[in-house]
User: What shape does this take?
Amino acid sequence: MSSYTQLTAEERYPIYTMTKKGLSLREIAKGMGRSHSSLSRELRRNKGGSGYRYKQAHQLAVQRHKEKPKSTKLTVLVTDYINKKLALLWSPDPICGRLLLDQNTSLSHETVYRYILKDQQQDGTLYRHLRHQLKTRRKRYGSYDYRGKIPGRVDISERPGVVDERSRVGDWEADLVIGKGHKGAIVTLAERRTRLYLAMPIANKTKELTTGALTALLGAVKDFVHTITYDNGREFNGHLAVSKELECEGYFARPYHSWERGLNENSNGLLRQYFPKSMPLDEVTESEVLTATNAMNDRPRKCLGYKTPWEAFIELTQAHVTKNTSGALMT
Assistant: This one.
């Protein structure tokens, strides 16, 4: 049996004309392919003081539909869940994905965005937890690379194709997040398969400090370090020492081709929620950076089936590792 559908404005016109001609409701219903009860209900609900008029009937039906109470999935329990995850800087998509796992509630990320927008229109502050707060983005066009040549540099074009496939754990992307006025920096690493993100603050972006941070962050999991793809900054001039220490291969993206290290670039953008560009980083502590990366690694990802990067890394490597107070992995 077909499901019931609301009468349309076009259907209301023949009801009006045929009732004026004196046809019975059963005759009209048969000719329209509608049930007698549907037409009887239509006349009872939408008849005015001057009888049934199709325009007036349609207006009454539309108004009644607008006023009808509608069920919503945004219950107090669900909105409380959304609010808590927004406070952890989760974006709407992972919130919805994890909500389905945690509470068996299916919700569209667009619904969450509308909820946040409505809150903002009522002077709420939920929108401030979103990564992009209606800020415009400025495109940076390529220019000459003044950063100098890197000894032993191997171009990304020579990197094994398996890295692009994301089929194994152990292919990392490296970069630096620089503090305001070039005061301090944070060395960052992102693992391409599991999206695990590691970071460590350094006082300044020297080759020695950068090299030490990279080997410290990955030393305990060197079995899961096959390649590292770097930015072209001179702070990575010690990449050969890193490759020797971790027994891996190093490659460099082309200048101003940040999308070749897209995962790391995106993760750095998330880290900026905790350490904005207006903030010097020379006094940032290892504990503060660890708190931020722990929060990021505990956010579920759609590409991981809404598992967290930390869960995915442990599951795929079976490694018995934890993070020490500096954010480095340790057995």
Remarks:
- Residues 37 and 306 are 48 Å apart (CA to CA).
- Residues 54-67 form the longest helix (14 residues).
